[in-house]
Amino acid sequence: MAFWAGSESDVDVLAAAAAEHGWTPLFADRYPHAGGPSHYAAYLENGDGFEVELVAQPRTGGGDR
């Protein structure tokens, strides 16, 4: 399941706090661009096997990341 999670810094804060709540990162070696160079997200999994994607709102202004 994917969720809008705010800004890129909001995604970073949530991803950093995830371990305290039973979540582990997926694709940690490719964080935060595991979904591609213009997709900023944290992919997480909990002990029950549920997976979530916390997605940053796209930047505005037309610039590349």
SS-derived structural category = alpha+beta
Principal-axis shape equals globular
CATH topology heading = 2,3-Dihydroxybiphenyl 1,2-Dioxygenase, domain 1
Q: What is the gyration radius calculated from CA atoms?
A: 12 Å
Do you know the CATH architecture?
Roll
The count of β-strands is 4
Please outline the major beta sheet. Answer: 4 strands, mixed
CATH superfamily: 2,3-Dihydroxybiphenyl 1,2-Dioxygenase, domain 1
The helix/strand series, from N terminus to C terminus, equals: EHEEE
Strand fraction equals 25-35%
Q: So what's the CATH class?
A: Alpha Beta
Protein name: VOC domain-containing protein
InterPro entries: Glyas_Bleomycin-R_OHBP_Dase
What does this structure look like?
The chain is an alpha+beta fold and 65 residues long. It has one domain (2-55): 2,3-Dihydroxybiphenyl 1,2-Dioxygenase, domain 1. The protein contains 1 helix and 4 strands, in the order βαβββ. Strands 1-4-3-2 form a 4-stranded mixed β-sheet, with helices on one face. A hairpin with a 4-residue loop joins strand 3 and strand 4. The longest helix has 10 residues, at 8-17. The protein is globular, with a radius of gyration of 12 Å. The mean pLDDT is 93.
